[in-house]
Amino acid sequence: MHELLEESLKEPLEQFLKELLEQLLKESMEQLLKKSLLKFLKEYKQKYNFVGVFNNRSPRIMITSSEVAKDVQSKNFKNFHDNEFGGMTNKDIDPLFARNPFLLTGEEWKVKRAEITPAFTASRIKALFPLVEDVCSRMTKYVKENRGTVQDAKELSAKFTADVVSSCIFACDAQSFTSEKPEIREQGRKLMEQSFSSFLIIIFITNFPTLAKLFQIGIVSKSMEKFFTDLMKKAILHREASEINRVDYLDFLMSLRNKKEISELDMAAHGVTFFLDGFETSSVAISFMLYEIAKNPEVQKRLRQELLKVTTDEGTVSYDSLFELSYLEQVVNESLRLWPPVAFISKRCTEPMELPLTDSRNVTIGKDVCAIINIWSMHRDPENYDDPLTFNPDRFSPETGGTGPYREKGCFIPFGDGPRQCLGMRFARMQVYRCLYELVRHFKITVNPKTKEPLKLDPKQFLIMPLGGIWLDFEPISK
């Protein structure tokens, strides 16, 4: 590791700090860090596949090569098996969050992953499609009833995803489009609004695990834990009493309980995992997609024409037809490239191994050293994409191989890559596709002047979110 620090950490870090000091009085810290970090990455990307950095005295590597990033997630998965914050939570203190597969490590992650993988088969997701359609109808009614009212794209998307996941997981109507204060939506908001403080808590737990355990510090509050546990209990009781046979995630969890004797707490933890995966990440993605569709009228027009071609006489679309729409897929992928919900991921080295620092030199990465993969930078790197800041869905056209060439190179990873990539990505695509179909088919969407452009990101959020929101106008289209 000392060799790595000499070659790939000392020189770039010293230069980085020197430039910070020289410019400190000239620009805001936000502008300064952004410019210096970008220059830091750009300059040393030409020399090294990764550079060494320190975080709270812990050595890390920041990967600059998309090929090395791909290998870390896939080919060398056994050496980088766990996520950085894996194993940092305590099941006694934080029973819901500590059971989330994202935070599980080693064999326990493998067992839990295998446990819930059958919930995401194509047939199960297809069976959920009518539930998503019901929510789409409520969303259209809501937007039409509020015609003339500018909509916050993030809030509209969150209402949609909250209703979808509540129906699929807890078999209930979250009433996001009908209630003044929908409880499930509000709990979801609280869960994610504490994401920055939760991030700080995780850092505290990481560095002071004994103190965290002593003071019973957890990520999810006890009141929120009780809310979701009670919600799962009510859903189970109602399903058992009604004897309804519905192929949804609740049905899957109850089947899992009967086969493996998992507890209601385990079921609630799985429910929260499904909720987080389907609710917040998807709503963030949808809000940016709506923004790009609104900002690019030619894209919107072309997309609407494609949607109308598969619309039935009843005014809807089939599941199979939706997944055959190539331009819709291109629009979604291009938005995910420009606005990946998560800016970076960090993988912990679980078995020491050599990584190529340059074409002619390898460096041993020690156990517990974390590898930071900057998704945001890779998705916007001009060496990976022509004119990377321009929204251009045609870069992913079927004629050019879609996302295939970029995935092969390792520079298109909105859901991560390898065995630990997002398990619910097909479900996410299904609800995203159906939401965009509904809104683009029924409304002409434009950016309201209330939106502060160019968009700036909120540095206090773990997920990619714009400061000031994305405000859009929806004008109903006459039949």
The CATH superfamily of the domain at 90-297 and 445-479 is known as Cytochrome P450
Count helical runs.
18
User: In which order are the strands of the major sheet placed?
Assistant: 1-2-8-5-3
CATH structural architecture of the domain at 90-297 and 445-479: Orthogonal Bundle
The SS-based structural class is alpha+beta
Query: What fold name stands as the CATH topology of the domain at 90-297 and 445-479?
Result: Cytochrome p450
Mean pLDDT equals 87
Largest sheet, in brief, is:
5 strands, mixed
Number of DSSP E strands: 10
Report the uncertain regions.
1-10, 20-34
Order of helices and strands: HHEEHEHHEHHHHHHHHHHEEEEHHHEE
Shape: globular
CATH level 1 name of the domain at 90-297 and 445-479: Mainly Alpha
What is the assembly state of the chains in this entry? single chain
- The percentage helix is 40-55%
Question: Characteristics of this structure?
Answer:
single chain; disordered N terminus
Outline the structure in words.
There is one protein chain. With 479 residues, this protein is an alpha+beta fold. It has a domain at 90-297 and 445-479: Cytochrome P450 (Cytochrome p450, Orthogonal Bundle), CATH 1.10.630.10. The chain contains 18 helices and ten strands. It has helices at 2-23, 29-45, 66-73, 106-116, 122-145, 153-170, 183-193, 195-207, 209-214, 222-242, 249-260, 264-295, 297-309, 319-322, 326-338, 375-379, 404-409, 425-442; strands at 50-55, 58-63, 82-83, 151-152, 344-348, 353-358, 361-365, 370-374, 443-447, 471-476. The strands form three sheets. A five-stranded mixed β-sheet has the order 1-2-8-5-3. Helix 10 packs across helix 12 (264-295) and helix 11 runs antiparallel to helix 12 (264-295). The longest helix has 32 residues, at 264-295. It starts with a helix and ends with a strand.
